[in-house]
Structures are given as structure tokens and as C-alpha cells.
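Board notes (copied after class):
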Amino acid sequence: MRRDVFTSIVAMIALTLLLGLVYPLAMTGISQVLFPGRANGSLVEKNGQVIGSRLIGQDFRKPVIGKNGKPEERASKPVMAADPAFFQERPSTATSYNAAGSSFTNAGPNSLEAMETYKENLQSYLGLERPYDPGLTAAQVPIDAVTSSGSGVDPEISEANALIQGHRVAAVRHLSLAAVDRLISQNTNGRFLGVLGEPGVDVLELNLAVERLAGGAG
């Protein structure tokens, strides 16, 4: 009996040290050596300051300013509108694209609430893009432009979505559409292992590239 208890205690301590200390430290060390960027959150820096992550979408909207010169509010929250100078993320169910509040909608395809949300998102998208792309129709709008991702903070949009928005960004920033399209192509990630998923455009990286180009052009 004593021998069994002693053996059990020794085994518990050994496994705790091995799996609870040695293994995590070894994996952390290996990942820091082989994949330091990914291991630390795929952080993105600008002028030496961390401004985001390649894994988390960001809010590229700005507060709506009322006639009184102050930000408008609705239900004690600031009213936000897309900043036309930036490529926009997918609609988000998370508050201000906050990864700490990542969420998704449980609404099914037959949900009236979901249908109304999609209609509103579609009208907002067309209202934002049509002044710069007059021929744009509702049928041409990619599904990711009106629906949120499962996490609500997806950092990527489809290439088709980015190409539509490129008309607006090029016009607002006084850049050639061809130059903006090249940046979209350069910031488009291919399918995983070449076969899984769809190509996606990292919005944060693309906006940073646009700012660099606009700064150089100015």
C-alpha cells in the first residue's frame, strides 16, 4: 500500500514537472527561435510603436462630427462612419473590433433580423463606394462586405472587396488606381497550402502600404 502511494506521488510530481514546466518552456523557447513574430502575436509596428496585429482586424472608421462641431452620439455611444481614406474591414459584431469582446451572431439564414442587417450593410457599402465607382451594382458586392466573420475581428477581406474599395482610396488620396491595385495584389495572401480557403487581403498591412505610397507621392 505504502509503495503504491509513494509511486503515485512520484509519478504525479514527475509528470507535473515534465508536462507543466519542461514541455511548455521547451515549446516557448523553440517558437521564439523559429517563429518569433508569430509567437509574440504577429505584431505590426509603425515608427517603433506597436499599432496592431496581423491576426486581428482594426477599426478604420472615424467619429461623425455634428453641426455643433462635436462628435455625434447615439445611446451614449459615438456615431462612427467609415474613413474614406482607408480600406475598411468586414462588418463586425465585436464592439469597435475589440478582440477582447470577440463575438458572432447566431442568426440563421432565414432570420429577419439578419436579413435587415445585411440590407443595411449593403446600402452603407454602396453609399460609400458608388461615388467613386458609379457602375457598381448590388450583385457585384462580395458577401464579406456585408457579413461579419465568425470572430467579428477577421483581419482580412476578399480581393474582390479590396479592388472595389481601391477606387475610393485612390481617388481620396490622389493616387493612380493602378498603383493601388498593385498594393492590393502585394498584400493578398494565397490559399493555405495552396488549396485551403480563399485568398485574403490583410487590411492593416494594406492601409500601411497606402500611407507609405501617399506619403512618398506627397
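Comment from the instructor: The CA atoms of residues 127 and 176 lie 22 Å apart. The first strand starts at residue 43 and ends at 46.
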